[in-house]
Specification:
The structure holds 2 protein chains of 2 kinds.
Chain A lengths: L5 E2 L6 E2 L15 E2 L4 H45 L3 H14 L4 H13 L3 H14 L4 H13 L3 H13 L6 H18 L3 H13 L5 H14 L2 H14 L4 H14 L2 H14 L3 H16 L8 H22 L13 H18 L7 H16 L1 H4 L3 H4 L1 H11 L1
Antiparallel strand pairs in A: 1-2, 1-3
Chain B lengths: L1 H14 L7 H33 L14 H16 L8 H10 L7 H16 L7 H18 L4 H20 L2 H12 L5 H22 L18 H30 L3 H21 L8 H8 L5 H21 L6 H22 L7 H17 L2 H12 L5 H18 L4 H8 L7 H6 L5 H4 L1 E2 L4 E3 L4 H11 L3 E5 L5 E5 H9 L7 H4 L3 E2 L9 H8 L4 E5 L7 E6 H8 L1 H7 L6
Classes of the chains: A mainly alpha, B mainly alpha.
């Protein structure tokens, strides 16, 4: 066993025994070098005791803190639900004082700030939350809505897409669908037709079972101009419930836009049978007038076809001539290019109409139809609103052009 | 096997009650123990402050309006009374007491001051007084370290270093910033880079932070949102924040010291009432601006998240600054760290908001300005530029803002130093009767090196092939008592004048030095070595060869004690002195 050494506490020189005068610095505070194992063990024992007591203290603190935070959070959520955004903001802030890192509290505060229109502050919390959890659907959704409110549509679309792919705690499918529909509405409102069409076509492939959602998708397709897809969706809906008036009207509109006026009229009539309204009645009337004018309709005689082709020329001539007739304006000299063509085409139509006699033939029907198409083709250059002037004619001519 | 045997031997010695660790080992182990105890104490302090805060100011349902002004006043009175009657050692700033322990009391800090700081700070800050728990944490850490040092029977040299170790642990645990704590103690407490204690300070700081994180969570003090610093033109705004922060910190320092000096002249009974009156003013102000109550961490968090308008942030900074100066001067227990961070944050945020209006194209986000403001004002008040940079980095866990923080902090530090020579702590120290060395003086006192004193060239050097007579002539010419002798191989030795004379007297004046005289070994030194180190060698050797660092066999000069005296001006003074005094 090595002998115990002693050092002067003041000058650190070795001394003979504790308590004796240091021969170097003459101090009397010389003590035994180092701590004995007993001291070490005592200190570690005290440390364990203090650690345990602190643990208990900290645990009780956390319990109270979490309770208080939760109480504030619940209060804030109910205020938010009541639309009291400012009050909710205050309570969320208090909840965060108690539990600063709680993501639910932060999200709640961000929602309240967003609802209260304090976008810049809300954005700081949302970007922070996104940094912590980049796949959170609700965070991306709020960021998307905020960007949309600020007019940053491309950013908003990007956030919406992230939200659609993101994580949702409950009812993920329903939320994703609602979000896609919200995105479609946003694209529709901001006139982003290409993106909108792509989004709706995507939606068509992943259609949900929910009937109201399918109805909404079909209506949106109709608004965007995806008529055949809309018609198909409405047809499916009508297969399930033939007395769905909204679907009947939707399908009627879709078929009407596709030029299937007979089918459209049938749908409108069924809808009218369920409940009458002025708009549908007008639509039925329009369908009737178009059907009566259409020379290509199946099941009519050659004479009727010929008559209708003449009516097309006549009404086309009248519609275009009413807008601008170069001869009627009394201009004497040689006409410039486009006007010259218009004048010659109208002359040709007049000539054709003068030749009233003769038996109807397929060739004559064809010639009349072609002439009517030539006359109508000039309408956009001469008339401000050629369709408004004679909508049945415009619809038939559009169908012929197809 | 050998390790096992040594372990068994130690166990056997433990059983017999003999010491098992030597002093350096004990010191390192003690650093960890200090860190753990300090961390635990700081955790308890913070929890106690929160608990009291929930009972008084931060109640679940808003208290009646007349109650709010009462709490800070009651807290101030109770805290002051406790310090006055029970623990007078807990009075004043922890930083000064810790420095006093280093310089004046051999590391002794009474343990009662730890208990006193704990209780008084809890009472003061928990009732809404606008002070922070970091300075009390620093003193508590130092006090715990001092107690443990005494228990572990450390020598005086180590006892003097033990208080800064505890201080680092306390501040690290309070801020959750281990690096900034180490730097702060190096910059502010021991005023230099003491390699001997650095390892212990780091160990203590880390162990305290680990304990603090264990109980209070590991997230930084502030949660910083995504921030942008703006364009390079926007850096001017950061420099402006630095300039304003530095100027404001100087104003704060001077006015606080003035007010504190006047209030200290009041009678005991009047001084007893001061914290109560200060608390009442705080409470009344808190009715209108509740943000100024307490440490205010979560309002800084709000500022980082763009919660406030720029003008209200500037107003909050001004109010908090005034109330902090008032409470500090009145002796309300608590520290200046948290209020400094609050004022800096609001100042930076307010000026940043203004920059966003004036320079919309090049401005950064508000969060960046808030962080820069924190760093700049801290650098100005505490005169710790390095700490301020790393503290912002650690408080925010964000590196993005480091360049603007460095610019602003440097500007602020220089501005504050120009406008107010001494920091508020130094001035408070003088008022409390401490004549501690100024941190900045210590930091900036130039250290003399060998190159400042040495005589360049080979004037005092002889070749070992020279004759004894030649050596004597050189000796007489130089007026020295010894000369350096260089061998052909580039080795140096020295020779005494009296040895040369003795040999010459015996008739060997023509002989070679190498053969005729006892050449004595000598150690070399280098031009960059501090004179203090060289002088220790001059106690043994009358002259030293100064060698080149890149070619140690090449001599660049020689150094004698006279050279050192001349460099310090001692010889010149002696010559100027009248003969009778000399």
């Amino acid at each position: 066993m090595s002998p115990q050494r002693f050092k002067c506490r003041i000058c650190s020189q070795e001394i003979a025994a504790p308590g004796v005068e240091c021969p170097y610095c003459k101090a009397h505070s010389a003590i035994a070098e180092g701590a004995s194992p007993r001291i070490l063990i005592t200190v570690f024992g005290v440390m364990v005791v203090v650690f345990t007591l602190t643990s208990l203290y900290a645990r009780s603190f956390k319990i109270v803190r979490d309770e208080r935070g939760k109480m504030r959070y619940d209060r804030a959520m109910s205020l938010l639900a009541e639309g009291k955004h400012l009050g909710a903001m205050g309570e969320f802030r208090e909840a965060l004082v108690h539990s600063r890192d709680n993501p639910d509290y932060r999200l709640g505060l961000a929602k309240a700030l967003f609802e209260a229109g304090r976008y810049s502050e809300a954005e700081t919390y949302l970007t922070e939350l996104r940094g912590a959890n980049p796949t959170s659907g609700i965070v991306s959704l709020l960021l998307g809505r905020m960007a949309a409110s600020n007019g940053q549509i491309d950013v908003a679309v990007s956030h919406f897409r992230t939200a659609i792919r993101g994580q949702w705690e409950d009812g993920a499918d329903q939320r994703r669908l609602a979000l896609r529909l919200e995105l479609v509405e946003l694209l529709l409102d901001t006139g982003r037709r290409q993106q909108l069409t792509a989004e709706l076509l995507d939606l068509e492939e992943e259609l949900p079972a929910d009937r109201s959602a399918r109805l909404r998708v079909a209506s949106l397709m109709l608004r965007v101009g995806l008529f055949s897809q809309a018609s198909s969706l409405f047809r499916n809906l009508l297969d399930e419930n033939p007395r769905d008036r909204v679907a009947l009207l939707g399908r009627g509109d879709a078929e009407f836009e596709l030029g299937n006026y007979l089918t459209a009229r049938t749908q409108y009539n069924r809808a009218q049978a369920l409940r009458r309204d002025g708009r549908t009645q007008a639509r039925v009337g329009l369908c009737n007038r178009i059907i009566e004018l259409d020379p290509t309709r199946r099941g009519i005689s050659l004479a009727e076809r010929f008559r209708r082709s003449r009516v097309l020329v006549q009404r086309g001539r009248a519609a275009v001539g009413a807008c601008h007739d170069p001869r009627a304006s009394g201009f004497a000299g040689p006409l410039p290019g486009p006007l010259d063509e218009l004048a010659r085409t109208l002359d040709m139509a007049d000539l054709q109409l003068e030749r009233a006699g003769g038996s109807p033939s397929v060739e004559k029907v064809e010639a009349n139809t072609q002439l009517a198409e030539r006359v109508w083709a000039l309408a956009p250059d001469t008339c401000d609103d050629p369709i408004g002037a004679d909508e049945p004619l415009a619809r038939v001519m559009a169908k012929l052009a197809r | 096997m050998r390790t096992l045997a040594s372990g068994l031997a130690k166990l056997s010695r433990m059983g017999r009650g003999a010491p098992v660790l030597d002093e350096p080992q004990r010191f390192l182990l003690l650093s960890i123990v200090i860190g753990i105890f300090s961390g635990l104490a700081v955790v308890c302090l913070q929890i106690s402050i929160e608990f009291l805060n929930w009972i008084t100011v931060h109640t679940p349902t808003p208290p009646p309006r007349y109650v709010l002004p009462i709490w800070p006043a009651v807290g101030g009175l109770a805290a002051y009374a406790l310090v006055h009657f029970a623990t007078p050692a807990a009075r004043g700033t922890g930083l000064n007491y810790t420095r006093a322990a280093v310089y004046a009391s051999d590391g002794y800090i009474p343990f009662r001051s730890v208990l006193g700081k704990f209780a008084s700070s809890t009472l003061s800050i928990g009732t809404g007084n606008p002070m922070g728990p970091e300075d009390p944490s620093l003193q508590m850490g130092a006090g715990i370290a001092s107690l443990l040092g005494r228990i572990f029977h450390l020598t005086r040299a180590h006892m003097r270093l033990i208080a800064p170790i505890g201080a680092a642990a306390g501040i690290g645990a309070a801020f959750n910033t281990p690096i900034a704590a180490v730097l702060f103690v190096m910059e502010e407490v021991i005023s230099g880079w003491n390699a001997g204690v650095l390892g212990s300070i780091v160990l203590a700081s880390i162990s305290a932070v680990v304990v603090s994180r264990w109980f209070l969570g590991d997230s930084p003090l502030y949660s910083v949102p995504e921030i942008e610093t703006g364009t390079y033109a926007g850096l001017l705004a950061y420099a402006a924040i630095g300039a304003v922060g530095g100027s404001l910190s100087a104003v704060f320092t001077r006015r606080t010291a003035q007010l504190r000096g006047r209030l200290l002249k009041l009678g005991k009974r009047q001084r007893f009432l001061l914290p109560t009156l200060a608390g009442l003013v705080v409470g009344l102000t808190g009715l209108f601006t509740p943000e100024i109550l307490g440490a205010g961490y979560h309002f800084v968090d709000g500022a980082l998240h763009d919660r406030f308008l720029w003008d209200s942030m500037l107003a909050m900074a001004a109010v908090k600054l005034a109330l902090t100066a008032l409470c500090f001067s009145c002796g309300t227990p608590g520290g200046l760290f948290a209020p400094t961070l609050f004022v800096g944050a609001m100042l930076g945020g307010g000026l940043g908001g203004l920059a966003q209006i004036l320079l919309p194209a090049s401005a950064g986000s508000i969060g960046a300005y808030v962080l820069v403001g924190i760093g700049a004002f801290f650098a100005g008040v505490f005169r710790a530029p390095m700490t301020s940079v790393f503290m912002v980095f650690e408080l925010s866990a964000s590196y993005v803002v480091i360049l603007p923080v460095m610019i602003a902090n440097t500007v602020s530090f220089l501005m504050a130093r120009r406008l107010a020579r001494r920091s508020v702590f130094e001035l408070a120290g003088y008022q409390d009767g401490f004549v501690l060395p100024s941190v900045e003086e210590e930091r900036e006192t130039p250290v003399m090196h060998v190159e400042d004193a040495m005589r360049p060239g080979r004037e005092r050097v002889l070749a070992d092939t020279s004759s004894v007579a030649g050596g004597l002539r050189a000796l007489d010419a130089s007026g020295e008592r010894a000369l350096l002798v260089e061998s052909r191989r580039g080795a140096w030795r020295w020779v005494r004048g009296r040895s040369l004379r003795r040999v010459a007297g015996s008739g060997d004046a023509g002989a070679n030095l190498r053969d005729a005289v006892d050449l004595l070994p000598v150690v070399r030194t280098y031009p960059d070595v501090p004179l203090d180190q060289a002088m220790r060698k001059l106690a043994t050797y009358p002259l030293l060869p100064v060698a080149s660092r890149v070619n140690p066999s090449a001599l660049v000069g020689t150094l004698t004690l006279d050279d050192v005296h001349r460099a310090y001006g001692i010889l010149a003074q002696a010559k100027d002195r009248p003969a009778d005094q000399a």
